[in-house]
Amino acid sequence: MRESTVAVRGRAVRAQAGRPQDSGRTREILRSAVELLAEVGYDRLTMDAVAERAGAGKATLYRRWPSKSRLVVDAVADFTPFPEGDDVDSGSLADDLRHALGLYMGGDPLRQRVVSGLSSALARHPELAAAMRDGDGHRHRCAVRIAFERARRRGELSRSAPLDALHDIVAAMVFYRVVFLGAPVDSAFADRLIEDVLLPVAGRTSPSTRRRRPEASGRKKRKRKHDAKP
């Protein structure tokens, strides 16, 4: 069966060919899926339950989404839309990384439950992981990767900088913070991750660290002078 698309929050959502799709109805179904994902998790979420919550027929869901995994990916993307990162170039690695991390930001408790439930299910459900890689999870990964690649082209990073390891660090730390700590990805966390982890690993020094260096050097000199014996 051929597929058509429905625009939801500026994003094309897959839909099976047939009658024209109502974008408002699609949004109701996606919101119902998100709420159930937060309440019961991916394993216990069913197309029947989503249909009942949205007041829609199960056939309506399957006309739009061929599987639960596809429905969940579109629902999460609609709930936490990721803007495209390809055309954002601040001219600075640190600022580009802040933009990329901004795709994760938000302290909404429902968002955190959704991310936690989805993250724990990815390892158990290969079809869900594959759908996420094809969708917005891959787009965020590209935004992080693009930030490092641009920095390398600008000469901010050496050709030997470990780009794969760098954006794997981003994913791991965000996952740990959201899933294990239950904490939001806020601007304070983003600054610490960038300045204390990513820039040093990439072989760069953050501007704030560079500003602190002369003062630290002066303290060492004063201490050596004070400790010197007459």
Please characterize this protein's 3D structure.
- The structure is a single chain.
- With 230 residues, the chain is mainly α.
- The chain has two domains: 3-79, Orthogonal Bundle (Tetracycline Repressor, domain 2); 93-207, Tetracycline Repressor, domain 2.
- It is 67% helix and 5% strand.
- The chain is built from eleven helices and two strands; from the N terminus they run E-E-H-H-H-H-H-H-H-H-H-H-H.
- The chain has a two-stranded antiparallel ribbon.
- The protein starts with a strand and ends with a helix.
- The model is unreliable at 1-13, 15-20 and 208-221 (pLDDT under 50).
What's this, in brief?
The chain is mainly alpha-helical and 230 residues long. Helices cover 67% and strands 5% of the residues. The chain contains 11 helices and 2 strands.
> H/E series, N to C?
EEHHHHHHHHHHH
Total domain count:
2
- What's the CATH first level of the largest domain? Mainly Alpha
The CATH superfamily label of the largest domain reads Tetracycline Repressor, domain 2
What fold name stands as the CATH topology of the largest domain?
Tetracycline Repressor, domain 2
Shape type: elongated
Spatial arrangement of strands, main beta sheet: 1-2
